[in-house]
Each structure stands twice: as C-alpha cells, then as structure tokens.
Amino acid sequence: MGSYQYYEFLSIDKSLSHSQMNELRSISSRARISATSFVNVYNFGSFKGNPEHLVEDYFDLHLFFADWGARNIALKFPKILIDPETIQPFLSDVTVAPYDPVFIDLKSVGDSLILDVRLNEEEPEYGWYEEDDFNRVTAALSSLRSDVLAGDYSLFHLIWLLGVQGGIIGNNTPEPLGGLPQITNPFVQVASFLQLDQDLVLAANQGSDAGNARPQDKIPSSQVRDYIDNMPDTEKNNVLFQLYQNNDPYLAAAFSQNINKILLKTSGATGGARRTAGEIVSLVEAVRKERLVREGKQRAEAFRRQKEEKNARQQKRLLVLAQRGAQVWQEVEDDIMLRHASAYDRASALLEDLKALTTQQGKQDFFSSQVLKIREDHAQKKAFLKRLDEKGL
Questions:
Q1: Per-residue model confidence as pLDDT tens digits over 267-286
Q2: What are the phi and psi torsion angles at 335 (to 5°)?
Q3: Residue 277 CB burial class (10 angstroms; 0-12, 13-18, ≥19)
Q4: Is residue 256 part of a domain?
Q5: N or C: which end of the chain has fewer CB within 10 A?
C-alpha cells in the first residue's frame, strides 16, 4: 500500500544553472524542475535523492511532508549575515537524535549554516494538506528566512518554542533575546505546519513589549533616511555600483542589517525581561482559557450579526409577499407540480416565508390549514414532504 509524500526545494538567492537542472533531472524523471524549484509528489515508491545533500549543493529551502506523520523543513543561511552570538541562545540546550519526535539541528557547511527541523509523529493530529497549502508554507518560510537575513530572528524563536513544546529544551532555560517579536502571518503559517501550540505562542508573546519588536519596526523610517542622507558619497556610490553589478545576492540584506545594527546601538534599544521556558509554559492554560472565551464571544457576535442580516432579508421578502397576496400560494402549488428538486426547494422556502408573514398578521390558523391541505394533496411526493419536515412546516 502506498503513502503520500511531498518534497519541495527552493533556490532563493540565485537561479539554478542548466547543468544543475540536468543533474537534478537524473535524480527524478517525474519531478517538476525549474530554475528556482524542485517539486516531487509520491503516492507509491520513494524519493531516491538525499534531501540534506540537495540543500547543501543546490537549494536554500526544503519542505517535506508524509502522511505517516513526518514533516521536515530545512533552511540554508549565508554565514556572513548570521551573528553566531545571537543564534547561540536559541539552540544551545537542544540535544536530540535524528529519530526523536522533534529533531532540531544547526550545522555548518562551507560558507553556510543549515537549520534542519524534523517532526516524527507516530500518531499525527492534523488534517489533509493540498499542494496549495504547501506553497503557502514555503512562501512563509522564505519570508521568515529573509527576515533572519535582515536581523529579525523570529524564525529561531519559533524553533525554540518547538523545542520547548517537544521537551528538548529544559524548563530553566531562559528565552532568547528577551521575548518573541511581533507575530506575523508567515510565523503563524509555519507554526501551524510544525504543529506548534498556538497558545504556547501567545504565552511567549504575552510578556513581550516594544523592546522585542522586529529590528525594522524599532527604527522610524525617517531615521533610516537621515542616516542614508548622511552617508559619505564614496560609501553610497560603492553600494550602488555593487547593486548595478548584481554579483552579490546578499548585498541588500547586508546593507539593511548594518544600518539596523548601527541605529539600534545608537538608540540603545534592548529586549524585554527574559523568562524561563517553564515560566512561559505555566502561562499556557490561562492563555488557552482566555482565547476560548474570546473566540466564543466572537462566534456569538458573528451568529448574532448573521441572524440580524437573515431577519432583515426576510423582512424585505415578507413586504413583497404581503403585496402579492393569494398569488404566492398559487406559485407554491405550481412549483410543487414541477416535481423536481429545485422547484421543491423554492416551494418550501416560500412556505417558510409565508409562515413568518401569517404569524406577523395573526393568521397562524389560516397558514396551518393551507399547509395541511398541501400535505394531503401531495401526500405521494415524499421528497417534498421531507423538505417540509426539515423546516418544521
């Protein structure tokens, strides 16, 4: 019996060459290969390539999903844009084996760092995924990767929380950088794919303040503009010339990251107070109760609005029905005689409105006698009578 497996690889920083695409084709004749991606779906059989090697040699991002409970992500970062001292607190206490329920690893390969995250759930708790869903997750991963290159380590906060949830980060471990920055839609997309408890995320975010905002959100754009205006012409010209040459895919990220570091250092912005993993976990139940109450109120409000809108639409219809008088009863009869589903739907819907109208007019007995006669006249039309029963007519 086969199993569903989805493999996707993306090259973000530069396109694949023709020779590289040919090399990838030798791995799979069925894969969809472009200058920036490799996608393969299996319902029978398995992938013959090595995902780790493909990320090392060709790609910047990898996503894998299997219906037996496995899901992996891998992201490659250029070392020149990653601060080792900043990343170290996120993963320093992680000690796992590749086939543990949660596996997290950051390894150095040449000029790159590769983050490898794997879930190996024996009894996964999730619904079915379509390829469009995977595309949204890879787009979200790409966005979070770009944020990392700009100095926003939200992705690593997410991975740290995954380690907390999986029990591979101890309760006494302090949270990195003083708290979780702003929760973005890409963050939510990836957290959902990795089955990260949304209430753990909310608990981690609960104590965050403006000091934990993303670097690009801490600095006013006017301050960035002033800094660029005051840069020496030679420095600005050098940056523009490098952009023109288009030889460095990391130039823009490095430029933004450098400005952020300088301006944040000047402003003295710092993160908030650091809590331990255990302190964050202790907040989860209270956060979950608050969320359920909030969502219950939202559902009740949505139901109230829907009911009001439904009633308003019905009142408009009743005004028209009142003007048409006995003609409406004949329309009901005509629809019943057509003997097909859509006509039965129209007839039963008209009767439902007629019930509301006659109730407003104080003519319930008249309505009941009319419906009783309709039931007697059409006693053999079981499908129609079933519709009346479902509407309580």
A1: 545 555 678 889 999 999 99
A2: -65, -40
A3: buried
A4: no
A5: N
Rounded to whole angstroms, how far apart are CA atoms 136 and 139? 5
- Grouped pLDDT means (10 residues each) for the chain, 393 residues: 84 92 90 93 84 94 90 93 82 67 87 90 63 90 91 89 88 80 88 92 75 60 79 82 75 73 61 79 91 92 91 83 80 85 88 86 87 86 87 84
Total Cβ atoms within 10 A of residue 73 = 23
Between CA 52 and CA 91, with CA 186 as vertex, the angle to 5 degrees is 50
CB contact at 8 A, 43 and 4: yes
Which domain covers residue 333, as residue numbers? 325-390
- Other C-beta atoms closer than 10 Å to the C-beta of 130 total 9
Is residue 318 situated within a structural domain? no
Q: Is residue 292 in some structural domain?
A: no
Other Cβ atoms less than 10 A from the Cβ of 101: the count is 14
Residue pair 27/48 in contact by the 8 Å Cβ criterion: yes
DSSP 174: B
